[in-house]
Amino acid sequence: MKNINLGIQIVPKSKTLDSYQLVDKAIAVIAASGVPYEVTPFETVMEGPETKLMAIAKEAQEAVLNAGAEEVLVYYRMQIRKGKDVSMEEKTLPHKH
To answer: Thiamine-binding protein domain: which residues (predicted)?
Structure first.
């Protein structure tokens, strides 16, 4: 099963709870999953098989709701390559021109 990149941004809505603490619940789920990931100011990017990453994403959004968010907005960005892996490293390492 080939690897893809999945960027996920979870925006919690809560009248009483701090949104950053709620987002930390999602990041904890991703960190515990064992897949390579990188947290950025706008989203968290994961690398792995699509079915696994989608399951982790679902678990992450559920964690935010279970932590007390009234609702969540979830934004996904995915890079999928036909017949070949996609890595985070290929996009972040210096390239020769």
So the answer is: 8-92
CATH class of 3-81: alpha beta
Q: What is the pLDDT of residues 30-53, one digit of tens each?
A: 999 999 999 999 999 999 999 999
Q: Which residues does residue 25 pair with via DSSP β-bridges, in sequence order?
A: none
Coil, strand, or helix at residue 20? Answer: helix
Pure H helices in the chain: 19-33, 50-66, 89-92
Overall residue count recorded for the chain in this entry: 97
68 membership: H or E segment, kind and range: none
Q: Indicate the pTM of the whole model.
A: 0.90
Q: Quote the tokens at residue 28.
A: 């904890």
Signed CA dihedral, 46, 52, 58, 60: sign only: negative
Residue in this structure with the two tokens 């990453």, named with its chain if needed: 53
Specify whether the CB–CB gap between 12 and 68 falls below 8 A: no
Of 23, 81, 97, nearest to 31 (Cα)? 23
